[in-house]
Design a protein that fits this description.
Helices cover about 35% and strands about 15% of the residues. By secondary structure, it is α/β, with parallel strands linked by helices.
């Protein structure tokens, strides 16, 4: 089954063919016909399944036959949790829509707002945005939604994790009720379904990959090693394997900087990407990595959201993630588009609990390989019998933090008045009272 059977125009098919694709992925086979029919959709699909093309292709098809947007109007709005993901989605829109007379742009924080306002004046067919900057632009009367036809929430679960629930609800109230709504999420938790109640209308629900699945095309295993020797082992693996492109995950921003600096000293080109870096620096680092100018990109989990590289051969977990689900997202960066990938985790003895949680999640014991000259002094204990992880309690909502940046994007946070604590009538002490004077008879 090829793309030509899905009802896409010749202009879009030519753009797909130019990218070297001939057969749609499972999520694309399922989602494209549904979107073209104008139905609402809830799709469970993880990173690396081709979900972006699953909604960009049919949206471009639908918009190509309509009238041009008026000034400051938007016809299709795609919301993403991070700046990197927003940029990647917009790249996909431009790539597949290059033969169509449609205008698109991307808006996010960390960069100047005036150039974004100028682009919106002409009217936009497809707008990709992060929630915070979108509300900034709306508050400055830079865009309107009267002509909106399609809304997409990409990685809805991550948006809730990052505290965007209130912003999303504010945005929904601004949109016309008559519209097509598409929700894409790695999982459909109770919180996601609660959000969907006021968002989608009689949606078609599809699922491609279960929550704890790992891509079959990925060979993933662990290297037990002492914590102090992780950098030396990483250097050894890169040199021995002659790796030209590897994505390394660090648990902290400081650690990412330290790893990149250490590799540079060993004549291995490397750069770090995290939320303390400016947006310009992050964009340049990712571009240099994709172009092969930098061999190693060291990233934190949030900063790596949206890094989409079809031919990435190697992923290394320098530190295991604290949240076991993030392991799936990390290794899912490799093994894409039908190609093989390799994911290696450098595990020290103090990370045994994180390792056990990951193995329980994927219901598989990861193969261990000891590297000569790097045998650990402190062994990583063997995992106990696999048991399904208990469902976690929903997280408390955090203060909104757009696109993993630590600073707000220009909007003033709402100040809440402190309230006096209520008096506990059961614990309050009774006031001392003087005894009544007895009358003298």
């Amino acid at each position: 089954m090829g793309f030509s059977t899905l009802g896409l125009s010749k202009s879009i098919l030519e753009a797909i063919e130019a990218q070297g694709y001939s057969t749609p992925s499972p999520i694309q086979k399922k989602s494209i016909p549904i979107v073209l029919e104008g139905k609402d959709l809830m799709a469970a699909a993880q990173t690396g399944t081709g979900k972006t093309a699953g909604f960009t292709l049919p949206i471009l098809q639908r918009l190509s036959g309509g009238k041009r947007p008026s000034s400051n109007q938007v016809r299709a709005l795609i919301l993403t949790p991070t700046r990197e993901l927003a940029a990647q989605v917009h790249d996909s829109v431009k790539t597949y829509g290059k033969n169509l007379p449609l205008r698109s742009t991307v808006v996010f924080g960390g960069v100047g707002i005036n150039p974004q306002m100028q682009k919106l004046r002409k009217g936009i067919d497809v707008l990709v945005a992060t929630p915070g900057r979108l509300l900034d632009l709306y508050s400055q009367n830079a865009l309107h939604f009267d002509e909106l036809e399609v809304l997409v929430l990409d990685e809805a679960d991550r948006m809730l994790d990052m505290g965007f629930i209130h912003d999303i609800k504010r945005i929904i109230k601004l949109l016309p009720k008559k519209r097509q709504t598409l929700m894409f999420s790695a999982t459909f938790s109770q919180e996601i379904r609660q959000l969907a109640k006021g968002l989608v209308y009689k949606p078609v629900e599809i699922s491609v990959t279960p929550r704890n699945s790992t891509v079959e095309a990925i060979n993933h295993w662990i290297c037990p090693v002492d914590k102090s020797r992780k950098t030396a082992l990483l250097t050894h693996l890169i040199n021995k394997g002659d790796w030209q492109q590897v994505l390394v995950f660090s648990r902290t921003k400081h650690g990412a900087n330290r790893i990149a600096t250490s590799l540079e000293k060993k004549n291995i080109t490397a750069t770090a990407i995290h939320s303390n870096k400016s947006q310009g620096a992050r964009t340049r680092a990712l571009a240099d990595f994709k172009a092969g100018k930098v061999r190693v990109l060291v990233a934190t989990d949030i900063a790596a959201r949206g890094i989409d590289i079809d031919q990435l051969p190697h992923v290394v977990n320098f530190d295991l993630p604290n949240v076991s689900e993030d392991y799936i997202h990390r290794i899912g960066r490799t093994g894409r588009a039908g190609r093989r990938g390799e994911a290696i985790s450098l595990v020290s003895a103090d990370e045994a609990n994180q390792l056990f949680d990951i193995e329980c999640l994927i219901q598989k014991h990861l193969e261990r390989e000891l590297i000569e000259d790097f045998w650990p002094s402190h062994d990583v204990p063997n995992s106990p019998a696999l048991r399904p992880l208990k469902a976690k309690k929903p997280k408390k909502l955090k203060k909104h933090n757009d696109s993993s940046h630590n600073k707000p994007e220009g909007r003033r946070g709402e100040q809440t008045r402190s309230r006096k604590p209520k008096r506990n009538v059961f614990s309050a002490k009774k006031p001392n009272r003087k005894p009544k004077r007895q009358s003298q008879s």
